[in-house]
Amino acid sequence: MYTNIIYGKESIDAFDKFVADWKAQGGDQITKEVNEWYQSVK
Questions:
Q1: CA-based angle 5:35:26, to the nearest 5?
Q2: pLDDT one-digit tens code per residue, 1-42
């Protein structure tokens, strides 16, 4: 996604859809789990 936006293959608005899709697929939960793991090993 990032590369496509940088090279003009996608509009900047595509990022908003990317984030919405990420959250709809459980992205917030994944982020929470990764952050919890990181705190336990740092």
A1: 60
A2: 899 999 999 999 999 999 999 999 999 999 999 999 999 998
